[in-house]
Amino acid sequence: MKIRRITAVAATLAASALVLSACETPETEGGSGITEDTALSVAWNQSFYEYNDDSATGNATANAIILYMMNSGFTYYDGDLNLAQDTSFGTYEKTSDDPLTVEYTVDDDSAWSDGTPVDAADMLLFWAAMSGHFNTATFDSDDDGVTVYPEDHEDAGEPVPEDVLANQVFFNATNPNMTEIESMTVSEDGKSVTAVYASPFADWELNVGMGVPAHVVAMHALDIEDPMEAKQALIDAVEGEDASVLAPIADFWNTGFQFGDVLPDDESLYLSSGPYLMTDFVRDQYVTLEANPDYTGDLQPKVETIIVRYFADPMAAVQALENGEVHLIQPQASSDTLQALEGLGDGFDVITGDGATYEHVDLMFANGGPFDPATYGGDEETALAVRQAFLKLIPRQDIVDRVVAPLNPEATVRSSFNAIPGAPNYDMLVEANQMDTAFPLEIDREGAAQLLEDAGVETPVEVRFLTASDNPRRMDQLALITESVEADGLFAINDVSSAEWGSMLADPSQYDASMFGWQSTSTSILNSRSTFETGGGNNFGGFSDARVDELWAEIAVTPDFDQQSEYLAEIESILVENAFGASLYQHPSITGYNTDLQNVSSIQVSPTMFWNYWEWETTLTQDDIVEGEGEEGEGDS
Question: How many CA atoms lie within 13 A of 118 on its CB side?
Fold first, then answer.
C-alpha cells in the first residue's frame, strides 16, 4: 500500500503501561532493557525496498514500518491515537502565534549509528526537500523525466544554456503542508531550527520530521568526506539558495537510498538513529534488525533481534505462523484468513478490527490517455464524460459483497475520499459529495453509454489498468471491474498490473487507472491534502483545481472541526464532479500472533501493529524460529 502522510510519523516514548509477564523472565543486558538472545520473526506482505520513505518512489508502508523501528523522532501515536512526544530525542515549542513560529531542538545525545550527531541540518534538509520551495524544475510525464523552466529563458525557441540546465533543482516529493513553512533558521549551535509559517496552521504539531541523514546526502552528492563539513555545505546551500549545490543534493535525495536485491555495501545508506540497526536484507525475503547498542533514548526495546519476512499470499503467512517461521502477522483480511487463524488453537491469538487502509480507484488526468483532455484536443467536457462513464461502471457494491462481506457481514461501500465510515463527519460528507448518485453502487450502464454517445467518443475506449499483479484479492477485484466495464463494449481493459506497482505510480506514462490502498499516517484533517492538491506528492493523476487548492489552504488555518468539515464537503463535491476516482471500502484488519509474544496491539494509522514494538516481550530465541525464505511480497495492506 501507499501511505497518505502529513509527515513521516516517528516513534517515541510510549504512554501506555507495560504488562508484566507471568512466566520467568530471562536476564537482560546492561541497563538497556534488552532480553538477551530473544528473537522474533514478523510477517509482512511487501518487501522493504527504499530507505527514503519520503521520496515519490519510497512512500510505502513496507518501507515506513522498518524505518519506524530504526529511526527516532519527535512524535508518535499511542494505542488510543493520542499524539505523544519523545523528549529523549528532542523537544519542540511554539514560541509565537503571529507569525506562527515553532522551535525544534534535538537532544545532545541523539546520533546516527555512524556517530554523527542528529541535528538541525537533518531537519533543514527535510524541509528543503518536502516544501518544494527550492525546486526550479518540475516532473514532465510526457518525457518521463524532468523539464526545466528557467526564468531567464522563457522566450519561445530560445535554447537554455547547459550551465542553467545542470543547475535545476528537483526534489521529487513535495508535501503541500510543508510549503506552509516560509522559512527555517538554524541555531548557532546547530542543534535547533526555528520554523516560521506564512500564516496560521492548524496541524503545526505534526508538520516537521527528520527524514534521511543530511550528512550522508551531502557527502555523496558533493563528494565531501567529512560529515560535519558536508552538513555545513548543505546548510550553506539552503540558506544561500545555491542551485548549483542543491541540484546534486536533490538528485541523491531522490534516488540514492533505493536498495537493490541485498544490503548495500555502503553502510551509510541505512543508518539508524533509534533502537534498531539493519544488519541483513534480501529483497522479497527478509530484513534483519538488531538492537542498537548505542541507542540511549527512552524507547528501549526488549527483543534483541526482529526479522521481518515477506509473504504476499495471506494463507502462506498463516501457514508460516503455524509452522513457527513467524510469530506475528497482519495479512490481507479475508474470511478464509480469519477462519484459518481462529483454527490454529492453543498457543495463538487473533485481534480483529477496522484497518488503517481504504481501497480506491484513481484516474489519470494528464498523461495523454483516455481521461486526459489533451487526448481530445483540449476538450475538457469530452474527457470528463469518459471519466464519468468509466466510474459509473465500477461495481463498487459487488466488490464489497464478494470480497469484504464474507469477512465482515456489516461491511459497506465507502463513499468518501476523506473520512472512514462511522467518523463524525462521514455521513455529512457522503450526502454532500453525491458519489453514490454520480457512480451508483449497482452501476449505471445506460448513463455510461449515453455519456460516451453524446461525447462522440469511439468505443471501446482502451484503459491501461494498474494494480498489484501478485495480490490474489486485487486481481479478483480487477476481474470484477473488467467484466463490468467491458460488458457493453464501452471500454477495454489493458491489464498493466505488476508486482512493482508501487514504484510505477509515480510514472503516469505507464497507466490510465489504478487501484490500491491509502494508509494514513495521521489523524489530521489535512492527511489527504497531498492526494488532491495541485502538485501534491500523492497526486499521481495530475488532478488540479484552483478552488480545491483554496479550500485546503482554508482548512489549514481553521481550528474548528465543523468548519473544516464544511470545507471538506465542498472539496469532495468537486472531486466527484470532476470524476477524480471512486472509493471502494475500508479494509478490515486481522492480526494473528504466537502467545509467546506479549503486548501485541494495532492502531488505525501506520505503522499499525508495529506502533509499540518497544513493548513487545517474549522468551523466544533464534533457535525457536523455523527457517524459511518467505516469498515475494506485493505491496499493499
Answer: 28
- Taking the C-alpha atoms of residue 563 and residue 492, their distance in angstroms, rounded to an integer, is 42
Asked if residues 447 and 479 have their Cβ atoms less than 8 Å apart, the reply is no
Asked if omega into 607 is within 30° of 0 (cis), the reply is: yes
- How far apart (Å, rounded) are the C-alpha atoms in residues 276 and 613? 11
Mean pLDDT confidence for 627-634 = 49
Q: In the 8-state DSSP scheme, what is residue 404?
A: I
Distance in angstroms (rounded) separating the CA atoms of residues 454 and 373:
16
SS3 state at 78: coil
Quote the CA–CA distance of 330 and 474 in Å, as a whole number.
17
Residue 494, pLDDT > 70, answer yes
DSSP letter at 332?
P
Burial (CB count within 10 angstroms: exposed 0-12, middle 13-18, buried 19+), residue 486: middle
Considering only 20-29, 355-364, 564-573, which range has the smallest mean pLDDT?
Answer: 20-29
143 burial via Cβ count (<10 Å: 0-12, 13-18, 19+): exposed
Strands (E), 470-580: 491-495, 513-520
Q: Which residues pair with 215 in a beta bridge?
A: none
CB atoms within 10 A of CB 360: 19
Nearest-angstrom CA–CA distance, 617 and 195: 39
Residue range 119-129: mean pLDDT, rounded: 97
The DSSP string of 373-391 is GGGGTT-HHHHHHHHHHHH
pLDDT digits (tens, 9 = 90+) for 234-281: 999 999 999 999 999 999 999 999 999 999 999 999 999 999 999 999
- By CB neighbour count within 10 A (0-12 exposed, 13-18 middle, 19+ buried), where does 458 fall? exposed
Residue partners of 596: CB distance under 8 A and separation at least 6:
327, 347, 618, 619, 620, 624
Q: Which of 572, 574, 566 is nearest to 545 (CA)?
A: 574
**Pick the residue with more confidence: 635 or 367?**
367
User: How far apart (Å, rounded) are the C-alpha atoms in residues 128 and 138?
Assistant: 15
Q: Is the pLDDT of residue 28 over 50?
A: no
Cell of 539: 497526486
Q: Cell numbers 542553467 label which residue? A: 164
Q: What is the rounded distance in angstroms from the CA atom of residue 599 to the CA atom of residue 618? A: 9
Residue 304: in which H helix or E strand, if any?
strand 303-310
Q: Give the whole-angstrom CA distance, residue 110 versus residue 355.
A: 33
Query: Could you read off the pLDDT of 33-84 as tens digits, one per residue?
Result: 888 999 999 999 999 999 999 998 898 889 999 999 999 999 998 988 888 9
Residue 606 and residue 61 in contact, taking contact as beta carbons nearer than 8 Å: yes
Q: Which domains does the chain have, with CATH numbers?
A: 356-586 (3.10.105.10)
Burial of 386 (0-12, 13-18, 19+ CB in 10 A): buried
| pLDDT tier for residue 12 given thresholds of 50, 70 and 90 | very low
User: Over 80: is that where the pLDDT of 148 sits?
Assistant: no
Predicted TM-score (pTM) above 0.85: no
Burial zone of 226 (CB within 10 Å; 0-12 exposed, 13-18 middle, 19+ buried): exposed
CA distance 294 to 112: 9
| Strand-pair category, 581-594 with 328-329 | antiparallel
Would you say 540 and 386 are in contact if contact means Cβ atoms under 8 Å apart? Answer: no
Torsional sign, CA 343, 347, 352, 358:
negative
DSSP, residue by residue, 574-612:
HHHHTT-EEEEEEEEEEEEEETTEES----SSTTGGGTT
